[in-house]
Amino acid sequence: MNAPPRYELYVLEDGERPVEVIEDTKIPNAATIKVVKQDHTLGNLIRAQLLSMPQILFAGYKVPHPLQPYFLIKIQTDGTITPTAILEQACTKLIGTMVTLENKFKREFSFKDVGGVVADDPYGTGAAGGSEWAQGKDYLDF
Amino acid sequence: MAQELDPIVRIRELERDRVNFVLENVDLSVANSFRRVMMADLPTVAIDMVEIEANTTVLPDEFIAHRLGMVPLVSANCDEAMRYTRDCSCLEGCRFCSVILTLHVSCQESITLDITSNHLELGAMDDGMDEEGDELSKRPNNFGMPVGKNDPGVAPVLICKIRKGQELKVKCIAKKGIAKEHAKWSPCSAVAFEYDPHNRLRHTTYWYETDIKSEWPLSENAKEEQPVRDDELFDYNAKPNKYYMDVETDGSLGAQEVVMKGLQELQAKLANLILGLKAPEPTAEDEMIPPPPSNMGGPPPTSAWGGATTQWSGAGSGAASWGTSPGAPAGWGSPARAAGWGSPAAGQWGASPSAAAGGWGDTSGWKV
């Protein structure tokens, strides 16, 4: 009965900061960044993007304990850019990728709509009573 | 790097609740994060609380409550059309953050009667909430109804079978949630993910008895790629580039919505991380806002390091580092953590009306 609410695994608490940068005192141009309330979805994505960037000497992430909802990402750069700056750059690049993907999907879906595959239910609500849609109440503008 | 080329998307099949597509020129991590986010990070509606008013069926209350929780409910546009109860200003659920479904079936004849998801009816919400909100206008007409209700083409979900004289009367409160909390909130019933059908990259090793080719038949997707020649040298630098995915939803969201919302959710996650990086370092003033009661008089943190040290200590070893890092006490690490596990949480628990007070009175409440 006294279990903590499960949403604590992915919702930031009041005043909790999503990111914490811990500078490395022994390695030059290195930092460990703690990202709170996120998991492998973001960790592995960022790690892979960082490794593809030429300024990076090291990038790795870990989820230290499966019950503690955060991950650490360790970054070392070649000194031309700070670890935080390159992390930000990586995120921006990834957002760019996602936007391109989104546009591609939008395009593909619109072609399929014309093809009449889901013409009766263009938004793919998967809902019963599709006829009710005809009465208006358009709820999405993709 | 694969991302130098533009990503390619090709949809092979599209149905209302299913989409099969091929993704090209993206990194494996992108494809996998996309898969993960579609499965676990998209909000839907599902029955979360069940008040059982009468249950004379053969199944016990919790059995029925669990089954009700699994019933997929129409959740189109759920991220905008509904609030999380934890974010809502109401005390115990209102029309903005919950959907009421009622079910009352009794059997009067000498037959076996099936109670199915079709017997669930949308109920009125007597919340006395006078707040304005545009969430309701964003909902489709059948929002919160069981998927496939009144659709002869969709078989309903069987909940219980009753005989003459038995009755089931329940009130269900459906809430918005994501699958990280409970899998019933996942919009996806299955997500297929395959790359490298010929195992060219040797990311896996096949066990076989005598002949690897006859014992491991190729998948359909293998037709899309050249088979590995017998004299081909292994390219250990090769990276996966083409991903075959098939997203199948339970009907609560459409396949198209799942895909688009999945990409948006990934962007939101990344954007929040950027925002977090750009946010100024917490000042001493900021850190004093949620002071742990025992440390009210403690010195303010002297440096960012103090705060950092506290955070490093896990939940278990927290006490030890309190002593060793005197710069931190008033700091900020611990209210967050303590609220979850320690004593300060007790106050919150008492005040939380949702689960605890659910009702063990004349009607029994089941947290599904």
UniProtKB/TrEMBL annotation, chain A:
The keyword DNA repair does not apply. It comes from the Eukaryota. InterPro entries: RBP11, RBP11-like, RBP11-like_dimer, Rpo11-like. It is found in: Nucleus. Residues 30-103 form the DNA-directed RNA polymerase RBP11-like dimerisation domain. Coiled coil: none annotated. One of its GO terms (cellular component) is RNA polymerase II, core complex. Keywords: DNA-directed RNA polymerase, Nucleus, Transcription. GO terms for molecular function: DNA-directed RNA polymerase activity; protein dimerization activity. One of its GO terms (biological process) is transcription by RNA polymerase II. Belongs to the archaeal Rpo11/eukaryotic RPB11/RPC19 RNA polymerase subunit family. PANTHER family: DNA-DIRECTED RNA POLYMERASE I,II,III, DNA-DIRECTED RNA POLYMERASE II SUBUNIT RPB11. This is RBP11-like subunits of RNA polymerase. It comes from Cristinia sonorae.
TrEMBL record, chain B:
PROSITE patterns: RNA_POL_D_30KD. Residues 283-368 are annotated as: Disordered. It holds the Pfam family RNA_pol_L. Residues 289-302 have a biased composition (Pro residues). GO terms for biological process: transcription by RNA polymerase II. It is found in: Nucleus. Keywords: DNA-directed RNA polymerase, Nucleus, Transcription. This is DNA-directed RNA polymerase II subunit RPB3. It comes from Cristinia sonorae. The lineage of its organism: Eukaryota, Fungi, Dikarya, Basidiomycota, Agaricomycotina.
